[in-house]
Design brief:
The protein has helices spanning about 15-20, 80-90, 120-125, 135-145, 155-165, 170-180, 200-205, 210-225, 260-280, 285-315, 325-350, 360, 365-385, 395-405; strands at about 30-35, 45-50, 55-60, 100-105, 110-115, 120, 230, 240, 245-250, 255. The chain is α+β, with helices and mostly antiparallel strands. The strands form three sheets. The protein has a five-stranded antiparallel beta sheet, with helices on both faces. Strands 6-8-9 form a three-stranded antiparallel beta sheet. Helix 4 (about 135-145) runs parallel beside helix 10 (about 285-315). The termini are far apart. The model has no long low-confidence stretch (mean pLDDT about 95). Bound molecules: 5-S-methyl-5-thio-alpha-D-ribofuranose and magnesium ion. The site of magnesium ion has 4 residues, from loops.
Length: about 400
């Protein structure tokens, strides 16, 4: 019998004992300390460290209600999904995800590698850090983790088994609501709109019926296109990084959906980092260097994705009809279209929806924040409405630069 045989939400004082009981990681004589370090919307994250050896480990536990709202509760099965996809991604994109040591279905807790020497990417970007290898790393992650899970490569019955395993209805519902619905109508009164921009948001988002139609089409694609096993929440808070290396983690929103969902999420979150740099860096030279690096990175992610997709496709395609001339290009076209749409959807929902990003909310000067938000919303609308024309990296750069001149 152990006190961890039935679920309770752990406090810092419980976690060292839990780790010692569950995994063989620390010495018997370790001096363990524990700190809760989570800053996400959903879970509790603890770091346990041995003061003697310096070794450390991470424990992520799901609560019965969400951190962001005690009125919201969602399936605690999300931990199983996360542990399982990290195992698959370790095979398809080795070295780019943290190792999982244990998933405990009773405590709804995962014990995993501490990504020592890496910083959460959003935190690094808030300090205007540059990560020169990020575009290369993330494009490899995207191509390897996404394409390997599709019907192009996988035996179709095996792929359908995975689709079944990754049915994630409650977390998908969060995205259906918070990404694809509420930013356009505030139907549950959960949007957080920056007051100086209220009229702008009403005109550009709540009252634009043409935009609603295009978002509705994208929503049904999100719900019905079981194309690839997607991470499902690939923003810069789901990445740990340093100048040499990148880890992608936190894939609890994973499900079979359009792979543009992951690529578009990254692009939008880099746009937020660009907006923060544009609004807050005082030194002109530093601003130009940082903002240019972000635009280069967006451009390179798209172009490297295309380049690596073409190579991966040639080397790994197994589906006979997918080898038909022209199919590779057609399929890529669908991915790029969905990428642009999601860059826009994420670009809007993080500005006006329930889950905002600090890149924007921490811009202290009200006028600068209002301008940054207008730039993001306007660029995002173009990504959605004109999604068939974002077929290369430079088209994103061009839009952000053009829109920035409008405000
Ligand atoms: C209620 S959860 C709000 C958001 O946090 C997660 O990171 C997802 O992005 C979700 O939409
Ligand atoms: Mg998360």
């Amino acid at each position: 019998m152990s006190r961890f045989d039935s679920y309770f939400l752990m406090k810092e004082k419980d976690v060292p004992e839990y780790v010692m009981e569950k995994v063989d990681f620390f010495d018997k004589n370790s001096e363990l300390t524990c700190k809760e370090i989570g800053d996400g919307n959903l879970n509790y994250v603890f770091r346990v460290k041995d003061q003697i050896s310096g070794k450390s480990i991470i424990i992520k536990q799901a609560g019965e209600t969400l951190r962001i709202s005690s009125e919201m509760s969602i399936s605690m099965d999300r931990g199983r999904i996360e542990a399982r996809i990290l195992g698959l991604q370790e095979k398809s994109a080795p070295g780019l995800v943290p190792k999982v040591y244990l998933y405990d279905e009773v405590m709804c807790a995962m014990i995993m590698q501490d990504m020592v020497g890496h910083t959460m990417m959003r935190t690094g970007l808030m300090n205007h850090e540059i990560y020169p290898l990020f575009a290369d790393h993330i494009s490899t992650f995207l191509v390897n983790s996404l394409i390997s899970s599709t019907d192009i490569v996988m035996e179709h019955k095996a792929k359908k088994e995975l689709v079944k395993e990754f049915i994630n209805p409650e977390l998908c519902e969060i995205s259906e609501d918070l990404v694809y619905t509420e930013p356009y109508n505030n139907q549950n009164n959960r949007n957080n709109v920056f007051p100086p921009n209220l009229e702008f948001v009403k005109k550009e988002l709540y009252n634009d019926k043409n935009l609603h139609l295009e978002v509705a089409k994208c929503k049904f694609d999100f719900m019905n296109n079981a194309q690839a096993l997607v991470h499902g929440d690939l923003h810069t808070g789901s990445i740990f990084i340093n100048k040499e290396h990148t880890y992608v983690f936190d894939p609890e929103f994973a499900f079979y959906g359009p792979m543009g969902y992951d690529i578009g999420n990254i692009i939008a979150n880099l746009m937020f980092a660009w907006s923060n740099g544009d609004a807050t860096i005082e030194d002109d030279k530093e601003k130009e260097e940082y903002c240019n690096w972000i635009l280069d990175t967006i451009e390179n992610i798209v172009d490297l994705f295309i380049e690596k997709y073409n190579v991966y496709y040639e080397n790994n395609v197994t589906e006979i009809m997918a080898k038909t001339e022209g199919f590779k290009e057609w399929y890529l076209g669908t991915i790029l279209r969905d990428t642009a749409a999601v860059a826009g959807l994420e670009g809007i929902r993080r500005i006006v929806g329930m889950a905002n990003v600090i890149d924007i909310t921490q811009i202290k000067d009200e006028d600068k924040r209002a301008r940054a938000e207008k730039i993001c919303i306007s660029a995002a609308k173009r990504f959605i409405l004109d999604r068939n024309n974002y077929t290369d990296g430079k088209s994103y750069r061009k839009t952000i630069e053009e829109v920035a001149k409008e405000f």
